[in-house]
Amino acid sequence: MSTDTAPLTDLRVPQEVVDLVFRDARTVNTFAEGEVTDEQVRAVWDVVRWGPTAMNSLPLRLLLVRSPEGRERLVAHMNEGNKAKTQRAPLSVVVAADLDFHEQLHRLAPHVPGARDNFAGVADVRARWSRDNAFLQAGYLIVGLRAAGLHVGPMTGFDAPGLDADLLAGSGWRSLMVLNVGTMPADADGTPASHPRQGRLDFEDVARTI
Ligand SMILES: Cc1cc2nc3c(=O)[nH]c(=O)nc-3n(C[C@H](O)[C@H](O)[C@H](O)COP(=O)(O)O)c2cc1C
């Protein structure tokens, strides 16, 4: 295990970009005052939507929660330790997977004839597929938000069935994660996280070559 953050060599993007989105980025739960606008999130979406998904299915859906009423409803479903963080975030994004993603496949995957109909009768396959691929897209989204200079606190500690029955009622959307999003407080001194950076597994821990 390592806390080493040696810079990449042979980069095709400036080192600062890698630092911004990975090496220096921390999970943040205390943000500066000030709104994160729909336009900021739209600009991030317009980039991260190009990240690959199986059959170009793009099952990720986003519920942006900014109003005091929306926030109260969201906080009610968060685990106790996540309530205050969510209460004070400028924007919270409910990241969801759309069980009915196949209804868009005529637009997204015209190269796969019959794709929509093949998924229509297999709800269990759609549930797994949408969850896998929306989680993948959630990763792209976190990196994209960071690239836009925003800070993110991802959370899965909430009552997902309760949230779905309330905020996502009447849709095929199923919540996966809540992202608190904002900018760094001016007095954060470069250390916005609540605890020291923990180590990461080394290449030898995670990879095998055959
Ligand atoms: C999918 C996911 C779920 C998480 N759930 C929670 C959570 O419910 N509550 C919380 O305080 N932090 C949560 N975290 C934050 C992680 O603990 C944190 O990202 C990790 O320890 C790395 O911290 P660092 O980015 O500061 O290095 C979650 C992170 C991810 C990516």
What features would you describe in this structure?
39% of the residues lie in helices and 14% in strands. By secondary structure, it is of the alpha+beta class. Helix 1 (15-23) packs across helix 7 (123-147) and helix 3 (68-75) runs antiparallel to helix 4. It starts with 14 loop residues before the first helix and ends with a helix. The mean pLDDT is 94. Residues 26-27, 82, 154-157, 177, 193, 197 line the site of flavin mononucleotide (FMN). This is Nitroreductase family protein. Residues 26-182 form the Nitroreductase domain. One of its GO terms (molecular function) is oxidoreductase activity.
Indicate the topology.
Elements: H1 15-23, H2 38-48, E1 60-65, H3 68-75, H4 80-87, E2 91-98, H5 105-108, H6 115-120, H7 123-147, E3 151-155, H8 160-166, E4 173-182, H9 203-206
Antiparallel strand pairs: 1-2, 2-4, 3-4
Bound molecules: flavin mononucleotide.
Flavin mononucleotide (FMN) binds at residues 26-27, 82, 154-157, 177, 193, 197.
GO molecular function, one term: oxidoreductase activity
Domain Nitroreductase: 26-182
InterPro entries: Nitroreductase, Nitroreductase-like, Nitroreductase_HadB/RutE
